[in-house]
């Protein structure tokens, strides 16, 4: 069967170590595989490794699967794993972070390896799901032993960016970037998988409306993302339906809590956000249900945490949003010394998250009702990130961001969003408002190493409760997954918004 | 003639150099490319290293100098976004854009010119009024709206035409064409119409305005007095006398379709240069933008050269100078 | 024997006696178009008084009123005549308020482009030679940059120079300059082409023989004879400018989405075409169509009226 | 008596306008029979051209036929649809328009225009049509026709264009020819050739022809009958001899009396004592009039204008300077014009007269030689500003009156522009007064001020450009065929005015004309041109009495003296 699908953009590179980004890795997951893999509900299951064992706090032994072939016929073995690991550490690699979780690999035999980590790492197998194995021989033959750098100078250096040779169920047979990628079924695939698809055609379509039209007109079998407002249309149209569910991405608002004076505000000489009451006032002014209902058409899940239920370490206890209570909000503002509110500038991307700009507008409206007059600066993501990111000194006072932890683990959130900003330790990189609490910093450090799940969860819970009390962030909701499929096509909708072709079954 | 053309081509080099210079001056306002090139787990230090290694921290004149030095050797660098040589990317996209622009320019001309003449000859007729109103609606509705409406009607409701892409293309080695397959031709229809509407309206109105004046001249009167056929008078004598501004505008329009058919190409996911360009802008793909702008500068110089030569062909009175 | 008075008649009497006014009175189409244009401009200018709601004052906008259909539809609400948009803004009021930005940007940028382009075209076509080459190559450079990039550049520079607070007031100027800059070449090249033909005509030679300086010949003699195409382009570009403004605002260089222009409203509404909330885009679209139509009719009329032979 | 071909009965033509309707033709009745030539003479602006246009169904909006009928043979052709008229135009009625410059499509070669017309009507093959085109050009006296046929209209001189227009009108062998001032821009020898050609067509092919002209010599030479028009009406019709010799109507009488005499030089042109207008056309007293106030140009010794070895070539053919052929329009011409002198230039059509005028005013850049104006060599001046200082002392009346005024300006502004620009008056109301006054003196009336140029007849337009030229109170005036489209009475008025200016203010003039009698009356010295060369320069009387150069002799010998021509005509009629 032929399966045609579309996403809003194309992958940048076919190099599995070229870009550490969910769509790219998910897309390549049909061609390449890691030692472990995600099941359709994001549970870790064996991939190219049959089993693993934590033999010492920093030592893991992996048994590799035997008889696995690369698409070009090469065998998969321990040398490939070692090669891959080394490759991820080369300068062009964007998987250096993952590579650095391993300090050494010892080949025990062709299908057994011993992995050494620099520190105890309870989630190593989880982190290896997107750590795709490449064939040593093939890479050497094509002069691709180093990860292709975005800086690469010529076409030969980017061979691996334009060609693929994995162990996955699909072989890339033709590719024209931005136009079309065609895959055929790999007949020697090691695993029995549900799909009956023999050929896959992937076309990126940047405009949501066009994507939806192409689905309804029957030219495509599956598209995503579908603009949420078009769900009704998909439901009423014949032969197609929307496929939705909560995504593992949380949308939230952040506030500048470190500067002594806000960059974009009429309050001079002090920073209102340093006052917990002001932050709380903001939290109580925002009606998450209204946003969900009107902007997200009821498809979002209002959130109290920066973490979605699908993520390892999620704690339902803390997921209750701040109550919508404008009166309380006004009262808090008055107490904090802003009875008439204040003016505030807000930064917002307008092409990054589902209805991002619309959400920001709604927030602006809601804040206006308690007297906080927000000036919205909505920009495309390139400009937005260039402005608010730490490279530019976090040039913002109030911003909207969305987050999916790439490792599907809570530590990633603690580390990137909740920890204090620290270049040396590389923490708080996405903590654009530079919220800072030393206890949380401490916890983040410990959680990384704690291998005991129960203890780990307790620490996490403490961090969450601190954050919530501090009102360090204003979580909005879990963004919805929004796919559209042709009737008769069944597939698994993964919460990380990845389409795994292994589960696609095309019927009539 | 030879001197004229070679002078122009020489000037085009200057134009391209200036375009490059301005381009590099403005790239820093487009956004930060790094964020799109790395994953979220990449550390700040690594980001900084990448920025440094791409030379993005250098003053723009240095970046420009580096780019030009390589460009004269035929190396336009690698696309940040697609990790491919820019020259190859552009060469890949060029046929799609050119075919689309030519078809829509042809449509616009084939409809616009006769309609312009008709509406000038019969300014009061009901058809004229209806047509002028309709064409203006076509202009005032944004391209994306028209595109989507066409898709909805012909693609979704009637299912006659494809909603996106270029269909099957035939690869001639140095050129890919959609003209040779049924699906290629079908795919062309909607984007070409979308693009043509604006051009057509402009041409209709321009031809009409100029015709109205020319039709009142003495030489048209004398042509009538000689009993020449209306076809000869309207299409040969009168039309030709309206051509100079019309050619100018057509040249500019064809140029800007080739260059910036951005909205149409993205609505129809047409794999052309406009789409490439807008994506390059949104992802701050500096090498693509730079090479692309140079190419466009060249395209415009050439088109305007052709237009200037056409002036001489059309109007002998202009030949004395130069 | 003639009615020569010693004083020059006042401007109003001169206007009332002018051929233009006389001609205008006799063209019903132009009158209707002028009334419509006037209504749009009036509605925009006095939106504060005319509009039933103030969609730019977000404290008065209720998200729960979002996406209401026009009043006459089943679920419509009488206080929102043309329905509401995704944020709960009254579409009718937003059209009025939004037209303000769109009209200013549209007319100002087209005016800027036309003035700049005409000036360059006149000089280039008349002077010829090196001057022409330089100006036209500058035009080629200009053509190579789409409005988007120009807007980003101007916006970036403006932000660099100006203090943070002034940015919002600046937004409109940035838009006007960016759009104006990316449109002027059309005028420059068309005017130039016509000037090249006109400059050899005898009436120009006659002006030279009188000893008139070049700029008078250009402005008083040649310009009126090359205005035909200019009016056509200008009236059509008005629509383009309004739409371009919306695109640029989307890129973050224009006005913020919380005070949408007509173009932005259409762009937002575009997202709701499939989902059945047609009123968000259709009504602003219709407003734009009416504006463009009226301005074009006026433009056509003016073109004919300025040409004594066509009256 | 041969059959009546074209019969115009009680034709009324009106031009409605905001400032009141203009009745251009009031109950005009004219007819012409096969083999007959009807001459139409009359006041400039009397409605002569309008009648031609009305017959062809080509009246310009808002003009309309208000009444009357037109018959071609027995068929009524007035009120026919455009489709039916097309069958008549060109094929059955050929029309020669008054304005030769604007009548030709500027973008096509003469060959193309001729061939298109020939093929439309005669169905010739390309080669045949081209051959016929060339032979037609030859017949109308264009030199080198096989080469010239591929030129564009702007490459021709005024007189040559006129001949092309004639060739175009004749190329389908029409049954009736309406010729509107067909020879105004032609020198006497070409004029004779053209008239011969027309006469031959009429006599041999039985064509009926209406010829509109101001030149009584032409009437005397070719017309069988003459109709005199005055203010939109035909006031008198009769055989040529009768009208020229013994007209009944007072207007006709005064018209004939105003014909300039070719034989003796008078101080002033005889003025017409026209009936109704007598009161309006007052003599102008320059001593008190604004025009009489001299502008101060400073003094200069020697000749005001001194032209030495002037050269001008036109390249043509190739598209980018790769010229196929070169026309030597002005070839080593030298002459000078003294202060206060009127220097006449006569000569063959296409001999370079207008080109000299344009060179002197620096419209063209010369290919060689020098032009000294008041002591400064104009060819050496690079900067436009400096040039303008000198230009402001000059003025030129262009050969083609219509193209030289801006069609988008009102007459008032056209004339007032130089006054305003040079600040010759102290107030706007004074400017207006002067403009109205000037209009009055060129016989247009102050009402003309609010109109646009296209609302005027050929002669009226010419007067607009004369008024504009005078408005600057120039020191040096170049007149290129200034009165070719004027009836003799207006002509007299204007030429007298020029003479007065010359006498009182020392206005210097360069006077280009084909009208030898006028030259004789106006000029102090005359230069004769042929094929780009100035072949002779002499005092006027000397030239007319004893021309030295071959070409001059030829020219003078052909000078029409209409009494003499009448006799010749009579002889011819007797012979046939
Ligand atoms: N722009 C031009 N390009 C080429 N040839 C030209 C141009 N203008 C004039 N000529 C040629 O130069 C010659 C002289 O022309 P000019 O107009 O000076 O004649 P003229 O003496 O004024 O004749 P006429 O009495 O018929 O007006 C003619 O042969 C004409 O064809
Ligand atoms: N388009 C017009 N609009 C208004 N009035 C016009 C128009 N054309 C001609 N007239 C008027 O009609 C009258 C007759 O014009 P016509 O051209 O027939 O004169 P004519 O006898 O040919 O004069 P001339 O000998 O000067 O060429 C003139 O008074 C003129 O002002
Ligand atoms: Mg006339
Ligand atoms: Mg001449």
TrEMBL record, chain B:
It comes from Kiloniella antarctica. The lineage of its organism: Bacteria, Pseudomonadati, Pseudomonadota, Alphaproteobacteria, Rhodospirillales. Coiled coil: none annotated. Keywords: Cell membrane, Membrane, Transmembrane, Transmembrane helix, Transport. PROSITE patterns: ABC_TM1. InterPro entries: BPD_transp_1_N, MetI-like, MetI-like_sf. This is ABC transporter permease. CDD domains: TM_PBP2 (cd06261). Belongs to the binding-protein-dependent transport system permease family.
From TrEMBL, chain C:
It is a multi-pass membrane protein. The chain crosses the membrane at residues 30-51, 103-128, 134-158, 170-188, 230-253, 278-302. The keyword Transmembrane helix applies. InterPro entries: BP-dependent_transpt_permease, MetI-like, MetI-like_sf, OppC_N. Keywords: Cell membrane, Membrane, Transmembrane, Transmembrane helix, Transport. Residues 99-299 form the ABC transmembrane type-1 domain. It comes from the Bacteria. It holds the Pfam family BPD_transp_1. It is found in: Cell membrane. Belongs to the binding-protein-dependent transport system permease family. PANTHER family: ABC TRANSPORTER PERMEASE PROTEIN, OLIGOPEPTIDE TRANSPORT SYSTEM PERMEASE PROTEIN APPC. This is ABC transporter permease.
TrEMBL record, chain D:
It is found in: Cell inner membrane. Gene3D superfamilies: P-loop containing nucleotide triphosphate hydrolases (3.40.50.300). Keywords: ATP-binding, Nucleotide-binding, Transport. CDD domains: ABC_NikE_OppD_transporters. One of its GO terms (molecular function) is ATP binding. Residues 6-256, 305-556 form the ABC transporter domain. Pfam families: ABC_tran, oligo_HPY. Signal peptide: none annotated. The keyword Transmembrane does not apply. Its main location: membrane. The keyword ATP-binding applies. It is a peripheral membrane protein. Belongs to the ABC transporter superfamily. This is Dipeptide ABC transporter ATP-binding protein. It comes from Kiloniella antarctica. The lineage of its organism: Bacteria, Pseudomonadati, Pseudomonadota, Alphaproteobacteria, Rhodospirillales.
